[in-house]
Amino acid sequence: MGRNNLWSKLYLACVFLVLYSPIAYLVFYSFNSGGTMHGFEGVTLDWYKEVFQDTRLLIIVLNTLVIALLSAAISTIFGIAGALAIHRIRRYRRKNALLSLNNVLIVSPDVIIGASFLILFTIAGIQLGFTSVLLSHIAFSVPIVVLMILPKLQEMSPTLIDAARDLGANNWNVLSKVVIPFIKPGIFAGFFMALTYSLDDFAVTFFVTGNGYTTLSVEIYSRARQGISLSINALSTLIFLVTIVLVVGYYFINRRNGGKRARLGVPTQ
């Protein structure tokens, strides 16, 4: 048993090493004063200063944040409605069919989704730009939010709703004062996951961006094709740090939710 645990830890360490070594390499050379990724000459923050002095890049950062926040907020609203609708379905086959349709969008290749949206927007006459990017980000974020909220709905006891109705609560009161507060951790988790996916997405966004409008992921790809610049390292490092903050926030939300369930005597899954 002890040897198996040792091999498991070694395997896990190797996996993390392979996954995080390129990121560590990128972050390390973002401070290189030499201007290349072949020899480290000294520590400098010039590449980060160059990022913050690039007006065009700052506008792209603002565009990316606006898209991410709007798509996360709207997809969270649709995700709540979708999760409630699926949860209320009593027929097993129908519920599984809807869950399967929801999961298809998550497991489908991003290239196929991006190309499909490009064809759809072209047929519908929607100009590629802010609107097309926002709609596509909402579309692939809604299934993620649904999956974050459904487990919380399944944990909720039906007696809570029955008790609220016995006390005279109407449908809106039940939803706003019983259901929403109970599933709030799932709502926040879904929002953060949608925000992270929107910030990181490249494949879908690459298909639906038009001339004069772009996001950070597409901009980094375009700059990388023109040649290696350590400003790309600095920009990528900043994006990675933002993603880490979102993931940590998601972790603490789940942890707080687990603590509340433990205090209420609700079994954790």
Short description:
The protein has 269 residues and is an all-alpha fold.
Question: Would you kindly provide a written description of the structure presented here, covering whatever features stand out?
Answer:
By secondary structure, the protein is mainly alpha-helical. The protein has a single domain (49-264), classed as MetI-like fold. The chain is built from twelve helices and no strands. The protein has helices spanning 2-29, 46-53, 55-88, 92-107, 110-124, 130-155, 158-166, 171-182, 184-200, 203-208, 216-226, 230-264. Helix 9 (184-200) packs antiparallel against helix 12 (230-264). Mean pLDDT is 83; it is low at 264-269.
Order of helices and strands, N to C? HHHHHHHHHHHH
CATH class category name: Mainly Alpha
Helix tally equals 12
| Assembly annotation | single chain
Radius of gyration, whole Å = 22 Å
The portion of residues assigned to helices is over 70%
**What's the CATH architecture?**
Orthogonal Bundle
Mean pLDDT: 83
Strand content: under 5%
CATH topological fold name: MetI-like fold
Write the layout of secondary structure elements.
Blueprint: H1 2-29, H2 46-53, H3 55-88, H4 92-107, H5 110-124, H6 130-155, H7 158-166, H8 171-182, H9 184-200, H10 203-208, H11 216-226, H12 230-264
